[in-house]
Specification:
Rossmann fold; alpha/beta; 24% strand; 140 residues
């Protein structure tokens, strides 16, 4: 049985740290990683202000580039998933087939850093598997 890890990736240093941690964990468990990036068409009151197809392609390129730069030669199977919609909903849905959901967290200050962001908090409350929150090593 393959150990499956889902990781939220948004291009931030925190999500890159979570991706790298996930890949290390998957290697130790003979597993695989699914990097999920959720996107939405920006809300603008002008109809047709954005071309959905162009946005989707741009986000797909962004995801592939981000993952490739973070880990050019992964030692475990690594899939990328572009999900249109709310980030929490996309990550919770992906967690249904996962053994672990991994998210990067930022933290702001010694006091504010104790609080989870809304995506982390909602995923931790709703995911179908254990949720691991990763903070970058260079943060206190």
């Amino acid at each position: 049985m393959t150990y499956r890890i889902v990781v939220g990736v948004d291009g931030s240093p925190h999500s890159i740290a979570a991706l790298r941690w996930s890949l290390d964990q998957a290697e130790g468990r003979t597993g695989q990683v699914k990097a999920v990036f959720a996107w939405q068409v920006p809300f603008v009151s002008l109809p047709g202000a954005f071309d959905r197809g162009e946005l989707e392609e741009a986000y797909r390129e962004f995801l592939v580039k981000t993952v490739s730069e973070a880990e050019p030669t992964p030692r475990v199977p690594l899939d990328t998933v572009l999900a249109e919609g709310d980030a929490v909903e996309a990550l919770v849905e992906a967690s249904k087939d996962a053994d672990m959901l991994v998210l990067g967290i930022r933290g702001r200050s010694p006091v504010a850093g104790l609080m989870l962001g809304s995506v982390s908090q909602m995923c931790a409350a709703s995911a179908s598997c254990p949720v691991v929150l990763i903070k970058r090593h260079d943060q206190g």
